[in-house]
Amino acid sequence: MIGRRRLSLGEAEAAVEQAVVDFERLGEHAAAFQGHDVGFCCLGTTRARAGADGFVRVDRDYVAQAAELARAGGCKHFVLQSSRGANAQSRFLYLRVKGEVENLVQAVGFDHCTILRPAVLLCKRQESRPMEWIAQQFLGTVALLFPTAYSVPVEMVARAMVACALQPGKGRVKVLENGAIHELGKAVPQQGT
């Protein structure tokens, strides 16, 4: 696991090797990217937290550089969490950056590249995001009637990422929209079942 800080993983912590890297000097940490068959990338921040330039640097530049290092280190399948509506031509910064990074990651030349485009992620966050919390409350209720339309629990995205790594399918690039994420996420049992 490569990240900006060490995470507390409870019982799983003993089974996971964590490499803490400085993403401003990512090239100095190339060894952390060596020898992995599959790479999962969920790196991101918010414009509110990092500013517009910081958001672009984290969500596009860091991700693209990590993909390049992973490929150079032998990674054959890269699984990227992007966003519904990602489009490099969008007038909205968030969607444009997500579209740009999708294009950059695809250009790296992995044997397989899977891009997941989830809708609103339903999760509990440590930091306060009042508008996101309101949206999650509303969409959590809507999800009872239309479970795949507007949102997806983060656990479902994680299970879908695992499923596509276990069975990459045909073709070099696969893009999974929110409904497909729900379907694929059901293929991997929840922990404890």
From TrEMBL:
Q: Gene3D superfamilies this protein is in?
A: NAD(P)-binding Rossmann-like Domain
Q: Name one GO biological process term.
A: import into nucleus
Organism domain of life: Eukaryota
Q: Where would I find the NAD(P)-binding domain in this sequence?
A: 11-168
Pfam families named among the record's database cross-references: NAD_binding_10
List the InterPro entries. NAD(P)-bd_dom, NAD(P)-bd_dom_sf
Query: Could you state a single Gene Ontology molecular function term?
Result: protein serine/threonine kinase activity
Gene Ontology CC terms: cytosol
Signal peptide residues on this chain, from the entry's feature table: none
Q: How does it assemble?
A: Monomer. Forms homodimers during oxidative stress. Interacts (via N-terminus) with elongation factor EEF1A1 (via middle-region); the interaction is direct and competes with EEF1A1 binding to guanyl-nucleotide exchange factor EEF1B2, thereby inhibiting GDP for GTP exchange and reactivation of EEF1A1. Interacts with nuclear transport receptors XPO4, IPO5/RANBP5, IPO7, IPO9 and KPNB1 as well as GCN1L1/GCN1 and LRPPRC probably through their HEAT repeats. Binds NCOA5/CIA.
Q: How is this protein named in the record? A: Protein HTATIP2
Q: Which organism is it from?
A: Serinus canaria
